[in-house]
Amino acid sequence: MVVKMKTEKQIKEWEKRVRRVVPYTPGEQPRRQDVIKLNTNECPYPPSPLVERLAAEFRAETLRLYPDPDASELVQGIAGYLGVDEEQVFVGVGSDDVLAMAFLTFFNSPKPILFPDITYSFYDVWADLFRIPYRRPKLDGAFRLVKEDYLKENGGIVIANPNAPTGTEEAPELIEEIVARNQDSMVIIDEAYVDFGARSALPLVKRYENVLVVQTFSKSRAMAGMRVGFAVGSRKAIGYLKDVKFSFNSYTLNAPSIAWGAASLRDEAYFRETVGRIVATRERTKGELARLGFAFPDPRTNFIFASHKTIPARELFCALKEEGIYVRYFDRPRIDDYLRITIGTDEQMDRVISFLDGYIKKRGM
Ligand code: PMP
User: 342: CA distance to ligand 1 center in Å?
Assistant: First the structure.
């Protein structure tokens, strides 16, 4: 039998129906062990010893059973910790999962949603995936929000505060004004980095139904590998979010994530100590980077977004990588001369600074 082959170029009928999307590119996870990994804003310290203990006592036999679909232990822990009602808390597989669910639930209008031109680069990917129209108003020259851009008709708003990758924080008053003047839209505040010295929008949840505050255990609680994130909002908003989640996958969080996440919340002293150490290292690193000729917006995050006065960021990124120091570089308009450097331990940051010092001196000759 002779089968007529279609040329490679011809798109088949089934392919035309594919929900195509250009995926988000996460930071590289190198296989090499000897790397100083400062490219994905992970915590350089381990999770609480309470988590360590539960992990050591973990019995694989318990995996026979499905986890609690409501993740009650974790939800109760978060509600108690933040002083909100359990019905105001939604948990997910990292805040990426929570944000994706929130996009799917709340952004369902022909009007465009709004988020800045420079922000977390997953927002446009979810919008594309879910076919949500969007507009990206420009941050100003200091990478700050232009409030008026968010007082125009829209189908929803997403603001990372502090912003990524810039590290800048917007004042709570500005966030409140945007929420208050957009009561026909859901406003999502992504607070992945809030624990490193920024002010949270959580108080707004008591006063406005249209705000959702999203946080994560990945950075300040050193549990990126567990994938635990959550949202706090009005009972009504959280109810809608749960309806979508339970129409998608009942068992999002696995049993260890629920139990170990809850354990992390019980160790407030360790949490404060860890965050305090990272903030102290950041403040010291800021001074060193400034001395070497770097400029950066004031960071309220566990990273610094820095640009050198003479040496292109791409060159520094490659030189650092060669040295086994991984930082993040975004080859995008307006930010292609910046490096996003995660705050590691004091020893790691000393290595970074001494390498940069030597490199800049050598190049200057
Ligand atoms: N929001 C922002 C602004 C982030 O930088 C990240 C980390 N990539 C996330 C959300 C998602 O973090 P996770 O899914 O680990 O909670």
Answer: 13
Distance between CA atoms of residues 253 and 233, nearest Å: 19
Q: How far is the CA of 227 from the centre of ligand 1 (A)?
A: 10
* 52 in any annotated domain: no
Q: Is 342 in the pocket of ligand 1 (CB under 6 A)?
A: no
Q: Please identify, among 215, 246, 267, the residue that sits at the C-terminal boundary of a domain.
A: 267
Ligand 1: centre distance to CA 359 (Å): 32
Residue span of the structural domain in which 229 resides:
60-267
Same domain as 315, residue 210 = no
The answer to the question of residue 5 being in a domain is no
Same domain? For 237 and 215 the reply is yes
CATH of residue 207's domain is 3.40.640.10
- Strands 294-295 and 328-329 come out as unpaired
CA of 92 to the centre of ligand 1 (A): 12
SS3 for 224?
coil
* Contacts for 37 with CB less than 8 Å, ≥ 6 apart: 30, 326, 342, 344
pLDDT band of 6, cuts 50, 70, 90: low
pLDDT of residue 196: 98
Would residue 94 be called left, alpha or beta, if left means φ above 0 and alpha means ψ between -120 and 50 degrees? left
- The kind and range of the H/E element at 306 are strand 303-308
Mean per-residue pLDDT over the chain, rounded: 96
**Domain closes at, from 267, 286, 314:** 267
- The residue-averaged pLDDT of 65-79 equals 98
- For the stretch 177-187, pLDDT in tens is 999 999 999 99
| Nearest ligand 1 atom to alpha carbon 165 | 5
Q: How many domains does the chain have?
A: 2
